[in-house]
Design a protein that fits this description.
- By secondary structure, this protein is an alpha+beta fold.
- The protein has three domains: 127 residues, no CATH class; 67 residues, Single alpha-helices involved in coiled-coils or other helix-helix interfaces (Up-down Bundle), CATH 1.20.5.1930; 138 residues, Heat Shock Protein 90 (2-Layer Sandwich).
- Helices cover 63% and strands 10% of the residues.
- The protein has a five-stranded mixed β-sheet, with helices on one face.
- Helix 2 packs antiparallel against helix 3 and helix 7 packs antiparallel against helix 8.
- It is elongated and about 130 Å long.
- It catalyses: ATP + protein L-histidine = ADP + protein N-phospho-L-histidine.
- It holds the Pfam family DUF7134.
- This is histidine kinase.
- It comes from Rhodococcoides corynebacterioides.
Length: 404
């Protein structure tokens, strides 16, 4: 049974076809009460068929069914049984529910007005009784309320899931940054240990070579110092290297570019942030250090806009590659009254663990770039950074391992 339900879940068109057949069979129960059964069956087929495409083309299917329903009403009026309800009334209930779930409220309300007109036509032209009229009005209301409830619930679940994904991504990013900072500290310690030990050993070796014949005792003492220094350095080296052992050495360094930026934007949009992005120039062949810097700046800025940008925040991102540098601009605003909130203030850092302007400026400074953050004349807030493309010659940055 579970496998069958999974099979149906991945084949919505088959489910809709089965629903259309079911409604058609229900309509056939009224064939015995009409004078022209073949005509009634043909109308029932015509009105039920659009239901099969209700999820693929909801708007077109709904209005097609309603138009065919009007034709059916005129055909019943012209027949010998003018008081018989035309087929398709139950199908209209399904179509109203479908529009409420899969489209916007404006489209749904327009279709509801069409249904109201259909009720009036059926009531005036065919002279249907009030019992059937009230029955279908209640069905329409129940379908709309049910769809609104389910749609709201789905939207809530989707937004919560998106925000959880943003929080998880932000948590992983901060964990990576913490590990990177720790690895940098260990690398500095490793450099200090090795450089100090090797320097001492070189000086002692030179002294021993000079005193080898003239002062053998002094040369022996120098060799002893070299041995002791080497053993001490080896112990420190083993301790430090043990902290660097990780499985990441077997994995390739992640690449960042237009696809990664598009993924960030998509993730933020799903979480409720209205963001637009403009990418100019070739961004997929940037040096890894620069590409990582662009990725982190956009990610951090959009995360801060989502957190502190008001009830309906929006952001505009522009990434432009120039001949010698890459410029990044993130501008935030809000539909709330007043200017945009300074979402990059460092005051929140102690409590929220935020990165802030200081952290972004440090990252940009490591890459030899420049960062500017502040309000614009119209009240919006902008973070702008310029990252040079030539790093090794100027700064000695390891472009193959930009996190180190």
């Amino acid at each position: 049974m579970r496998r069958f339900s999974e099979w149906l879940r991945h084949r919505p068109f088959a489910v809709d076809c089965a629903l259309a057949v079911s409604l058609f069979l229900i309509e056939l129960t009224a064939v015995a009460a009409v004078q022209q059964p073949l005509v009634y069956v043909a109308m029932a087929v015509a009105v039920s068929t659009p239901i099969a495409w209700r999820r693929r083309y909801p708007v077109a299917a709904a209005w097609t069914a309603l138009a065919l329903g009007q034709v059916a009403t005129l055909m019943v009026w012209a027949s010998e049984e003018p008081r018989t309800l035309p087929p398709g009334q139950l199908g209209f209930v399904v179509m109203l529910y479908t529009l409420a779930v899969y489209t916007d409220r404006r489209t749904t309300l327009l279709f509801a007005l069409g249904l109201a007109a259909d009720i009036v036509v059926v009531r005036l032209v065919l002279g249907s009784d009030w019992t059937s009229t009230i029955f279908f009005v209640l069905l329409y209301a129940l379908a709309y309320i049910t769809a609104e409830f389910l749609g709201t619930r789905r939207a809530y679940v989707a937004e919560v899931s998106a925000r959880l994904a943003v929080a998880e991504s932000d948590r992983d990013r901060r964990a990576v940054e913490a590990v990177s900072a720790e690895r940098t500290r260990i690398a500095r310690e490793l450099h200090d240990v090795v450089a100090h030990a090797v320097s001492v050993m070189i000086v002692q070796a030179d002294g021993a070579s000079y005193a080898l014949r003239s002062d053998p005792d002094r040369a022996a003492a120098a060799l002893a110092n070299i041995s002791a220094t080497g053993r001490t350095a080896l112990t420190e080296l083993r301790r430090t290297v043990s902290l660097l052992r990780t499985d990441e050495s077997s994995e390739s360094h992640p690449e960042y570019g237009t696809a990664a930026l598009a993924k960030i934007v998509e993730l933020m949009r799903a979480a409720g942030l209205r963001v637009s992005i403009e990418q100019t120039g070739e961004l997929d062949d940037l040096p890894p250090a620069v590409s990582l810097g662009v990725h982190r700046l956009v990610q951090e800025s959009l995360t801060n806009v989502l957190r502190h940008g008001g009830e309906r925040p929006r952001a505009v991102v522009a990434v432009r590659r120039e001949p010698s540098a890459v410029t990044v601009s993130v501008i935030n605003s809000s539909d709330d009254t007043g200017p945009a909130v300074d979402i990059h203030t460092d005051a929140a850092a102690p409590t929220t663990g935020g990165f802030g302007v200081i952290g972004m400026r440090e990252r940009v400074a490591v890459l030899g770039g420049e960062l500017r953050a502040g309000p614009l004349p119209d009240g919006r807030w902008r973070v702008a950074a310029t990252l040079p493309l030539e790093l090794k010659a100027a700064l000695g940055v390891d472009q193959d391992h930009p996190d180190r």
